[in-house]
Amino acid sequence: MQKGCFLSVVVPMYNEEEVIEVTYRRLQAVLDKLGETYEIVFVNDGSRDRTADIVRSLCAEDRRVKLVEFSRNFGHQIAVTAGMDHASGRTVVLIDADLQDPPELIADMVAKWREGYDVVYGKRIERKGESWFKKLTAAVFYRLLRSMTSVNIPVDTGDFRLMDRKVSDALTSMRERSRFIRGLVSWAGFKQTSVDYVRDERFAGETKYPLRKMIRLSLDAMTSFSTRPLKIASVLGFVLSAAGFIYLFVVLYQRLFTDTTREGWTSMIAISLLFHGITLSLLGVLGEYIGRTYEEAKGRPLYLVAEAVNFEEEAEDSRK
Ligand code: UDP
Ligand code: MG
């Protein structure tokens, strides 16, 4: 069962006490029906509620349930990565804890895998119960990202997907810190296909992705899959300085050869504000890249594990 089961399901969790038990039951029902060996790897991303306790008791009653407990909150994409690091299945499924992605779809994904596909990702044809703001920003983001990058990242897909072991191994071998897993999967290539689904409402609880985390994820995606913002920055800089240079001649001509030289305070302020604004935002673009380069250069581990339950090979905490 442990080494080399057929299917590993990876579930990242952050404060999911209201849903996690139901999620387990629904997963179990679907997986039992498959008639194959499986494991469910729950990754607790530093929850401050009872999530870990609930999963721990599930671990006690079912050896196929495993828990990777982080030392603190490291973020969703890192939690998924840790789950994949610990998964031993021939195939690996990534699914959110909140039942927005229907576990029943796993059966269809497995069927596609048997047909010979290495990646089967869920494509959201509809999103229920999410605010218009989230839907709009998501739609804009996926399309913007697509136009910015040379990697062909499918629109309207989340992390809900099934991967063959070789794809999962490829992903876990990429230890970059700014992770955008969907992008990495596309980058990896292999034979990919999709299954359509309607994204349900969250079963219970609130989104664990506030605007701040959404922006961070989008910036990670942009910066790790595209250097186009840098190119746009330099093109913009070039165009603006050319315009400024031309205007300089106009001004000089007026001053030297005509008597129309104006007072000019308003135009000075306007130009100065415009240029400073643009300069600062372009510096910000540079900063996004430099900051990430710095993070990568430090080469710290992606996450720290406080405890791993039901992984025989892990060393037990000696205090227990
Ligand atoms: N999550 C996580 N760490 C975080 C934030 C979220 O592990 O810092 C998990 C969360 O428990 C859920 C998944 O990531 O299983 C997706 O989060 P959520 O459903 O809140 O995002 P949304 O569906 O609203 O985009
Ligand atoms: Mg959700």
UniProtKB/TrEMBL annotation:
Domain Glycosyltransferase 2-like, chain residue ranges per copy: 8-169
Annotated keywords: Glycosyltransferase, Membrane, Transferase, Transmembrane, Transmembrane helix
Main location: membrane
Transmembrane segments: 232-253, 265-290
GO MF terms held by the record: glycosyltransferase activity
UniProt enzyme class: transferase
Enzyme Commission designation: 2.4.-.-
The UniProt record lists the keyword Glycosyltransferase: yes
Location of this chain's protein in the cell: Membrane
One Pfam family here: Glycos_transf_2
Coiled-coil regions listed: none
Keyword Transport found: no
Membrane topology: Multi-pass membrane protein
Protein name (record): Glycosyltransferase family 2 protein
